[in-house]
Write a structure and sequence with these properties.
Elements: H1 3-10, H2 14-30, H3 33-50, H4 57-75
């Protein structure tokens, strides 16, 4: 990597980058579930391209266990209305 590349990165208009991120996520949220499902599927396809045997049975067991722990933690929280 060249010094000029690092300088260009550091001097990027970070406020514009932040604005673009806000606009992207606002668009995603108002686009309905279809776009989110499409993005998720693209991520899944990319993961499989990198690791063709993913997810393994062990990966699925670990994922299910994580979901169960999170669900149990969320269920244990008492929500009081104001």
């Amino acid at each position: 990597m060249k010094r000029s590349d690092l300088r260009a990165f550091a001097e990027r208009d970070w406020a514009a980058v932040a604005d673009l991120k806000v606009a992207y996520w606002a668009n995603l949220k108002t686009s309905g579930p279809g776009l989110a499902i499409q993005v998720g599927d693209e991520l899944r396809r990319h993961a499989i391209a990198l690791h063709p045997r993913w997810p393994t049975a062990e990966d699925r067991r670990e994922d299910l266990a994580t979901h169960a722990r999170v669900a149990a933690a969320l269920n244990s929280v008492s929500i009081k209305s104001r």
